[in-house]
Amino acid sequence: MIKKFFHFIRFMLIGVLWSYFFITLANLLMYKLWNFSFFSARSWETLSYFWNNGGIIKTAPDYAFLAMLLAMPFLWIWGWRWLCRVNYADILLFPLNAYNRRIISKYGHDSSRIVLKNLKSSQKMIEEIKDKIESIKPEKAKEGNTIRSRILQKIETEIKKGK
C-alpha cells in the first residue's frame, strides 16, 4: 500500500514539473512563431474571431499552427509517460558511470585476467581434467620406460658387436 502511494506521489510530482516545463516551452514557441500566447485572452479571441467569420486555412504556416495546437495534448501526455519510465538513479549516477567507463577503457581493456562466472562448475571441470590427465599419465610413462629399455638393449648389443 505504501509503495503504491509513493508511486502515485512520484507520478504526480513528475506530472506537475513536466506540465510546467511543457506549457512554458510550448507557450514560448507559439509566441515566437505565430505571436500566439496560451495565457492571453486576446490571442484566443483573435483565433475565435478568425474562425467564426469564415476564416480559411490555406497557407503552410496556418496548417502548422493548427497541427501544433492539435498535437499539444498528445505531446504532453507522451512526455509525461516517458518521464515516468525514466530511471532517475541512472541520471544522477551518470557522472560516476562515465568516469568508470573512461578508466576501464584507459586501463582495463587489455587486461589478461580471467573472470570465472560460475566457480563451482569450473572447479568440476578442473577436477575432470585432472582425472583425465591422471588416467593418461601412466600409459605414457609405461611407453617411455619400454622405449628407454629398448634403446638401452640396442646400445648394449651394438657395444657387444663392436668389441
Continuous helix count: 6
Main pleated sheet: none
Q: How would the global form be characterised?
A: rod-shaped
**Distance linking N and C termini:** 105 Å
Average residue-wise pLDDT? 84
Radius of gyration: 40 Å
Report low-confidence residues grouped into runs of 5 or more: none
Order of helices and strands: HHHHHH
Which class best fits the helix and strand makeup? mainly alpha
Determine the fraction of residues in helical runs and give it as a percent range: over 70%
How many beta-strand elements?
Answer: 0
Strand coverage percent: under 5%
Q: What distinguishing features does this structure have?
A:
rod-shaped; single chain; 0% strand; 163 residues; mainly alpha
Question: How would you portray this structure in words?
Answer:
The protein is an all-alpha fold and 163 residues long. Helices cover 83% and strands 0% of the residues. It has six helices and no strands. Helix 1 (2-34) packs antiparallel against helix 3 (60-85). The model has no long low-confidence stretch (mean pLDDT 84).
